[in-house]
Amino acid sequence: MRADVEALDIRDVTANWVNAEALQHQIEQRIAALADLAHTPLFFGRLTYLAPPGTDGAGGTDGAGDAGGTDAAHGAGAANGAARADGRDRADGEAAGAEDDAATTYYIGRRHVHDADGDPMVIDWRAPVSQAFYQASRKQPMDVALRRRFGYTGGELTAYEDEHLTDPTEGDRASRLLQSEIERPRVGPMRDIVATIQPEQDEIVRAGIGGTVCVQGAPGTGKTAVGLHRIAYLLYAHRERLSRTGTLVVGPNRSFLRYIEQVLPALGELQVAQATVDDLVAREGVAVRGTDDAQAARIKGDARMAEVLRRALRSHVTMPTEACVVVRGSRRWRVPAYEIEEIVRQLLDRDMRYGAAREALPQRIAHAVLVRMEQAGEAPDDRVQDAVARNAAVKATVKAVWPPVDPAKLVLRLLSDPEFLAEHAEGLLTADEQKAVVWSRPARSVRSAKWSPADAVLIDEAADLIQRTPSLGHVVLDEAQDLSPMQYRAVGRRCTTGSATVLGDLAQGTTPWATGSWQEALAHLGKPDGLVEELTQGFRVPRQVIAYASRLLPAIAPGLTEATSVREAPGDFSVRAVPAGELDAEVVAACRAALRHEGSIGLIAADARLPALTEALTAAGLSWLAPGEETTPESRLTLVPATLAKGLEYDHVVLDEPAAVVDGEPDERTGLRRLYVALTRAVSGLTVVHAAPLPELLAGTGS
Asked: Where is this region: Disordered (predicted)?
């Protein structure tokens, strides 16, 4: 398929060089989307229906939803019987028979694959006909006679497993291939889960584009993967719409984005932008190089600040004291001050954006002039009105009444001038709160100010009050529990005319302003009607590990359902108390022991402990990576600050000194939540090494 695209000759099919450049760009994108992925099979499953989907009596595609777009047409064609087995699955050793009928047998894979004649050989996992691979069960077989899962080792087909969903003599059993795929060691960046999507995950993935979905997911439930696969599904089902409006994934930090960045390209989706909230609100000339204490950051992130900014911005509008006199030729046209004031008040009452109203004001004044011209017997047209709106007298009036405002300068004044802040925060912020956010040493200019991340969000809010922020078609917001109300507003501005997928876990909120409830968060996002779904079945964290970490839930998120794990293996789990003077050496020893296992190793520690551990690892001759750096078979140990562990996962985790992780946060609840995050990063094994006493809820377990 890639060779066919590379062989295209467009020299005689474009009208001009612009069209040729655009078409060539599309061809290059298509070639990139068809890139080979090492050790990644083209298909992972097979469905055999009792009757061709789409025919009378066949229920295989019921409820599959819309699948518009180019690739969806391939799926629709397959659903109508276009797919051809042609004996291609003889690799599994099965003899030809009725099950191989071309109209009822479909191979399911990451991408749509067709043969030289254009007939489908592999159906995209997002196509309606593929949904039964994830949703069919013995209770609801969806007209599927057989579901086959294929197992691979290094890209080579090594096993297969069949489920005869309509055979009453075959009993229920867990899928060993599914279990082994879930438990496969993790080396390198995050990978897709198309072969292991569970029914409850699939329902979220295929939810319609019209509404916002919020996923509350316990550790290991695959909420991040669900969000990424959901955006891949929406791009498949609504490609034309989203290609115009754009899509975006928002993550908590750059390390996290580097970890997930290969998932969508592996599914052939190359056009999804990725950013942190700090990236979204970054503005030229506003250098973020300062920090806030916890109280100041919490207040600056409070939704009340939006109203403070609105009041401060509107205070720049003043009522006119003089008439506007427009001279055209030998005539003078006068608009009195009271009439201009009436126009200004009408614009204020409409609550338009500051910049839009400022652009409308000269046209309103010009219209008043044209009314006078018509009353005097003239017949002005739109060109005359535009000319009057550009008249120097009108411009001067607009500048005096509705002056331009720079958003950064507005925030600078609020944070530098206590009296200006007090005037516009009256009834919103207390005197103590105002004192907490005002700079002790006011900056002289926007460029010299040491802006904090929370300040940058305030500037973004002010900029939107002046000029509307462009909206995207769909935004995926991950680790959303850590956002402040003002940060939610910043993300919500990017999808005011689109939808969102919000992912998070209230128990993992590790900021002083962490989300209290998803209903509150969705309201700040501007999506109060969003649907909240909860995932509690874990696929990543071993049973013993999640049970141990869940001891913290009563203190950090008492209303949440405790997660369960489908992992059959309990995992390697130990808690070791060591003498204080031997802590570093014991941690190094635990890392050496973990490295004897397959897969990635994460050493997670409080930020304050990193210098000591760095020195100990160096002395022991152990090399390590920083979070986000790709592991290799030769370098599998990553030293992870606890503050960056969220969203990451490792086959084996060594957790250094839990008490230090808790003490590194401004309050105990936040510290326990940070510890909960660190405890739940393990896929196969967890070793906790401590010299200080464990938090009370975790005390009493050891080995």
From this structure: 58-98
Q: Is 222 annotated as a binding residue?
A: yes
H runs (alpha helix) in 494-642 = 518-525, 543-549, 553-556, 583-595, 610-619
Q: Are residues 649 and 627 in contact, defined by beta-carbon separation less than 8 angstroms?
A: no
Is 555 in the same domain as 628?
Answer: yes
Please count the CA atoms within 13 angstroms of the CA of 388 that sit on its side-chain side.
30
Q: Is 220 annotated as a binding residue?
A: yes
CATH number at residue 443: 3.40.50.300
Residue 223 in marked binding region: yes
What H or E segment, with its residue span, contains residue 387? helix 382-389
pLDDT at 68: 38
Q: Do the strands 324-328 and 331-335 form a parallel or antiparallel pair, or are they unpaired?
A: antiparallel
The residue to which tokens 């592991």 are assigned: 631
Where b means 16+ CB within 10 Å and e means fewer, 244-273 reads: eebbbbbbbbbbbbbbbbbbbebbbbeebe
Tell me the pairing of strands 156-164 and 324-328.
Answer: unpaired
Query: How far apart are the C-alpha atoms of 481 and 83, rounded to whole Å?
Result: 44
What is the rounded distance in angstroms from the CA atom of residue 523 to the CA atom of residue 544?
Answer: 37
14 is in an annotated binding site: no
**Within-domain flag for 178:** no
Backbone angles phi and psi of 653, in degrees to 5: -120, 135
**219 annotated to a ligand binding site:** yes
Q: Which of 331, 330, 390 is nearest to 365 (CA)?
A: 390
Same domain? 532 vs 553 = no
Both tokens of 220, joined, read: 């290991």
547 with 538: CB under 8 angstroms?
no
Domain that holds residue 164: 45-173
For residues 165 and 522, the answer to whether their CB atoms sit within 8 Å is: no
> Is 218 known as a binding-site position?
yes
What confidence category does residue 186 fall into, taking pLDDT thresholds of 50, 70 and 90? Answer: low
Q: Distance of alpha carbon 317 from its chain centroid, rounded?
A: 38
DSSP code for 54: T
Give the tokens for residue 333.
Answer: 């046209």
User: What are the φ and ψ backbone dihedral angles of 575, each rounded to 5 degrees?
Assistant: -125, 120
Considering the domain architecture, whether residues 573 and 666 belong to the same structural domain is answered as: yes
pLDDT in tens, 104-129: 899 999 889 998 888 999 999 999 99
Handedness of CA 200, 205, 209, 211 (dihedral sign): positive
45 annotated among ligand-binding-site residues: no
Residue 371 has pLDDT above 90, yes or no: yes
| CA 504/CA 515 separation, integer angstroms | 10
- In the predicted structure, residue 188 carries a pLDDT above the cut 90: no
Q: Which residue in 239, 238, 232 sits closest to 202, CA to CA?
A: 232
* Count of residues making up the chain: 703
**Structure-block tokens of residue 430:** 């207390």
Is 158 annotated as contributing to ligand binding? no
How many domains does the chain contain in total?
Answer: 5
Nearest 5°: the CA angle 551, 552, 555 is 125
- pTM for this model (two decimals): 0.84
pLDDT tens, 131-154? 999 999 988 999 999 999 998 887
One domain for residues 420 and 438: yes
Residues paired with residue 68 on neighbouring β-strands, in sequence order? none
In the predicted model, what is the mean pLDDT of residues 320-339?
94
In a domain, residue 463? The reply is: yes
Identity of the residue numbered 36: D
